[in-house]
Design a protein that fits this description.
three-stranded antiparallel sheet, SH3 type barrels, binds zinc ion, 189 residues, alpha+beta, 2 domains
Amino acid sequence: MSLQEILEKRSGKKCELCSQTSNLSIFDVSGDNLPEHSILICSTCKEQIEGREKLNPNHWRCLNESIWNEADAVKIISYRLLHLLKNENWAGELMEMAYIEDDLKKIALDGLKEENSEQITHKDSNGAILKEGDTITLIKDLDVKGAGFTAKRGTVVKNIHLTDNPKYIEGKINGTQIVLVAEYTKKSS
Ligand SMILES: [Zn+2]
């Protein structure tokens, strides 16, 4: 039996999260392709899980049922989603009520860490991870348009600020807040 067939049999050809029956596909919750770590989900669920659409709390009311599913993979992804929605009262309550084994909880939360760090990691020219408030040195001359000066290579910038874009950081040079390309900087140790 193919993975698709195993999952169709288990789910009764329904989205294992919201029970929708159309546009079903496989989603691997832990990255190891095991049937016990894969689920069959609809495109609505998948787009939100993969971050292509914002999480819609109303849609995820279906977690009320899926968190009790017998399949480990369904529990893992349900718990992960509840964690992301924990600011909603019902989601917080459900997380406390739900029974989930520690090893499944770990897979659920590990998956989150990867996604988060991928989104927000700023790296310098050596691949060192930059943090809010770090001190960096410019490794290239930087023409600061508008401010009328060139920040020379070797200029030290203290107390950097991380932007939402992993490519860019911000820092003050000559009293002017400037956007810097992270890979043209070097973190000071
Ligand atoms: Zn669904």
